[in-house]
Amino acid sequence: MAVPKHKIVVLSDLKDSTATSLKTAISLAKKTDASIHFFHVKKPTDVVVTDNQLSAKRAINSNFTQTNKEISELVSEFSKKYDINITSSFTFGNIKNEIDLFLENTNPNIIVIGKRRSKSISALGDKISKHVLKKKGKTIIIASTESELQPENEISLGLYNEIEQQHNNEFINEIIENANKPLKNFQVVNSNDANLILVDREMVNPKSTKSFDKLLNKMNVSLVVAN
């Protein structure tokens, strides 16, 4: 069996944006040659409520089994519904550190994170999301619940703020080739214009985080952060 050219990782907190993130990953994987892996991290302090070491260990083991079952059922549901293979993994630890370690070990070139409803920052939380967004060499997909991609529908790709239309990013080029409408440049976007908007990475550097938050807040479509 041939190895896919691209690796898509869905980083999820298992909250309301999870289904949207999975649908987005599946939509993109079906339009490109990509595999999908679902990854979740939970802080031990979210589970352990006692200083007793034995009780803490039991609580973590019990929650691990429960969470692992929840993830397996979720991934299996989407995998069967859309006829696509999705792998998954889960761990306890410091969320930022565990994400860094996972990304270093698996080296995906596409990362999907969800955007909370009516919030400017994505579902992983303010600090974690901004940390992920600054990963160089990665294409970051911010999946919007307001206008989510559907695996059975076509992709309409737009460009934000007249960024360059030529890319050395093979994944982006495959999306462009499979988009069902010509590329358009947008200053303000609504969901009738496009369902996927390409944004330049320079917009999420440390000096421009606030302006990027404003961009996220006014756009009700999924964003692709690349270049």
From TrEMBL:
Pfam families found in the cross-reference section: Usp
Domain UspA span(s) in chain numbering: 6-133
Protein name according to UniProt: Universal stress protein
CDD domains according to UniProt: USP-like
Highest taxon in the source lineage: Bacteria
